[in-house]
Amino acid sequence: MIGRLNHVAIAVPDLDAAIATYRDVLGAKVSKPVAQPAHGVTVVFIELPNTKIELLHPLGEKSPIQGFLDKNATGGIHHVCYEVEDILAARDKLKAEGMRVLGDGEPKIGAHDKPVLFLHPKDFNGTLVELEQA
Amino acid sequence: MIGRLNHVAIAVPDLDAAIATYRDVLGAKVSKPVAQPAHGVTVVFIELPNTKIELLHPLGEKSPIQGFLDKNATGGIHHVCYEVEDILAARDKLKAEGMRVLGDGEPKIGAHDKPVLFLHPKDFNGTLVELEQA
After folding, report:
1. Which residues form a coiled coil (chains A, B) (predicted)?
2. What average pLDDT does range A99-104 have in this prediction?
């Protein structure tokens, strides 16, 4: 069912410092910051040859990653995102297996303008999993 | 400097349960467990089209991931591994930039029989980073 690893998301408390680390120290190709007010984050894409790292920084007062940064002051890996061919079929299979889909269970339009869902980390070895329609 | 994302490593407290989740629930291609006594872990490779997930389970009494599992009982994302063309040049550049290389700073032979180094998570937004010679 799952296909490519679309990205690994890393929450960062200081976006400029994180950009400098990935661009200047690790020598990676780094995008300009992209504000995504609908998602409560500013995102920077680190483009690797085979996948992406996404740096996430809180935007606005109700950012979904603020709680994570409150618990992890230096930042940390927030989630992994796998691509699926058919997100509704994937969701229904997962629910039938007893896996918990976060929110109301309906796909939302994600940071890449494609439908996404998040799965409960306790059902996946402490890993927050995002599924994105390929 | 950094190239492909070689893998994302996820520490798991129950290897059989994690295998079942990735193979049967997420429908991924999952290897048999590989004991790596020199590294204190048993590893299962989840083969995605563009990269790998590595499930890590403690092996022996001094496993380097036991402390992580003591703090994260359900498991969690342990590290990301980036490939580099020349691990000694990468190490020297990182040290010159003030980044901390773990251990004695000399590359060790890693789980894929290639030289690897680990970098201090506090220098990389709370993310434990492994570098592997490509």
Report:
1. none
2. 96
